[in-house]
């Protein structure tokens, strides 16, 4: 659970908004793990599974929403201990997207010190949940990447 600051100190966003560059569904492709990914959502969903053919089906899905649907398939075998690694996989994808697309990195850095909140009413892990008592893990991932980008900028400026 996260503490909700005043509305003007927070930025609420949706992972599924294809028009928001900070969304996992935005069409900002990147290269990671020897493959080209159309979106963060494609990468995240594909990395869940042991079957390379199924992961490839997700990678080539025509839309991030379709990648998400395929990634939520109950009949496919997921990697052991997937839940322990999911935040790391999301962070890798978001960071790589930001390093690939300067405009996305700038958008993230432009959020300043705002608390970033994934506004899903139904997702209590990645989002804040209906009652704002969720973990807001996606918001935390964005803020972690923002901090890393700031550190890198400071190091480059000092070099």
Beta-strand segment tally: 4
Low-confidence stretches: none
Q: What is the topology, as strand order, of the major beta sheet? A: 1-4
Beta-strand percentage? Answer: 5-15%
Mean pLDDT: 94
Major sheet summary line: 2 strands, parallel
Distance between the termini: 39 Å
Amount of helix:
40-55%
SSE string: EEEHHHHHEH
Structure in words:
- The protein is mostly helical and 159 residues long.
- It is built from six helices and four strands.
- The strands form two sheets. The protein has a two-stranded parallel ribbon with strand order 1-4. It has a two-stranded antiparallel sheet with strand order 2-3.
- Helix 1 (40-46) runs antiparallel to helix 2 and helix 4 (82-100) crosses helix 5 (102-109).
Please render the helix and strand layout as text:
Layout: E1 10-13, E2 30-32, E3 35-37, H1 40-46, H2 52-59, H3 64-71, H4 82-100, H5 102-109, E4 115-118, H6 137-158
Helix pairs in contact: 1-2, 1-3, 4-5, 4-6
In short:
This protein is mainly α and 159 residues long. It has helices spanning 40-46, 52-59, 64-71, 82-100, 102-109, 137-158, and strands at 10-13, 30-32, 35-37, 115-118. It is 45% helix and 9% strand.
